[in-house]
């Protein structure tokens, strides 16, 4: 019985370690893609824009000090010139409405929208490539 329990615990630890390695590999690949996008956008001369932030609930947009490129049409995801990825949604607040909001960089997902309620997801590489191909003709 103790052998079985010890073997099971080893298997669970090995599985958890493998999952952690997979997540780290995915995060590193996504980070490389975002840095590539920023460099390629600069190389192609895509115009940077002042990014705005949306409240999680409710309407309106908040100013931010960030400049970069929106990478989705909803303007909820963006990349700055240093290759940082941002989710441009924050909790609603009077302070953000008055003084603006400055979200922190987030790890980029390899599959954008995965697990979302609408079921629409897209590989990060595809999303970034579409944005580059659209050039400055982006809404």
Instruction: Provide the structure class.
Output: alpha+beta
Give average pLDDT, whole number: 89
**Helix tally?**
3
Poorly predicted regions: none
Termini separation comes to 64 Å
Order of helices and strands: HEEEEEEHEEH
Measured on Cα atoms, how large is the radius of gyration?
A: 19 Å
Q: How many structurally independent domains?
A: 1
Biggest sheet, spatial arrangement of strands: 1-3-4-5
The number of E-state strands comes to: 8
Largest sheet: 4 strands, antiparallel
Helix proportion range: 40-55%
Percentage of residues in strands: 15-25%
* Spatial shape: globular
Describe this structure in words.
By secondary structure, the chain is α+β, with helices and mostly antiparallel strands. The chain has one domain (2-134). Helix content is 42%, strand content 15%. The protein contains three helices and eight strands, in the order αββββββαββα. It has helices at residues 2-43, 94-99, 124-134, and strands spanning 49-50, 54-55, 67-70, 77-80, 85-87, 89-90, 111-112, 122-123. The strands form three sheets. It has a four-stranded antiparallel sheet with strand order 1-3-4-5, covered by helices on one side. The chain has a two-stranded parallel ribbon with strand order 2-6. The longest helix has 42 residues, at 2-43. The N and C termini lie far apart (64 Å).
């Amino acid at each position: 019985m103790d052998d079985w329990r010890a073997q099971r615990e080893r298997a669970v630890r090995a599985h958890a370690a493998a999952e952690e390695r997979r997540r780290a590999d995915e995060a590193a690949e996504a980070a490389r893609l975002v840095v590539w996008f920023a460099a390629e956008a600069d190389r192609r001369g895509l115009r940077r824009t002042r990014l705005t932030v949306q409240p999680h609930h409710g309407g309106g947009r908040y100013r931010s000090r960030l400049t970069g490129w929106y990478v989705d049409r909803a303007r909820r995801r963006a990349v700055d010139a240093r290759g940082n990825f941002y989710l441009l949604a924050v909790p609603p607040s009077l302070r953000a409405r008055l003084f603006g909001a400055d979200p922190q960089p987030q790890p980029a997902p390899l599959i954008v929208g995965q697990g979302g309620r609408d079921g629409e997801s897209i590989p990060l590489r595809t999303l970034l490539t579409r944005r580059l191909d659209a050039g400055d003709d982006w809404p």
